[in-house]
Write a structure and sequence with these properties.
The chain contains 2 helices and 3 strands; from the N terminus they run E-H-E-E-H. 25% of the residues lie in helices and 25% in strands. It is globular, with a radius of gyration of 11 Å.
C-alpha cells in the first residue's frame, strides 16, 4: 500500500509516517516545513519505502508521484 501524507513533518504526521512504515506501507511526505520540522522525520530518511518532498502541496507539478 502507498500513502501520501501532507504535513508529514508535523507532530501527528510524523507519528503516522512511523506507524505506516512499520506496517509495511510506502510513505511519501510532502511538507513545506512552515510549521513542521525536519527533525520529526529526519530519522526516517533512508528507510525503505520513505520519501520526503520539501515543497508545498500547491506546487503539484513539482512533486507528482
Amino acid at each position: 500500500m502507498r500513502a501520501m501524507i501532507t504535513g508529514g513533518a508535523g507532530f501527528i504526521g510524523s507519528h503516522l509516517c512511523e506507524f505506516l512504515l512499520a506496517e509495511g506501507w510506502q510513505v511519501c511526505v510532502v511538507d513545506d516545513l512552515s510549521t513542521g520540522s525536519y527533525d520529526n522525520v529526519g530519522h526516517l530518511e533512508g528507510s525503505e519505502g520513505f520519501e520526503l518532498i520539501i515543497d508545498s502541496v500547491l506546487n503539484r507539478g513539482s512533486w507528482r508521484t
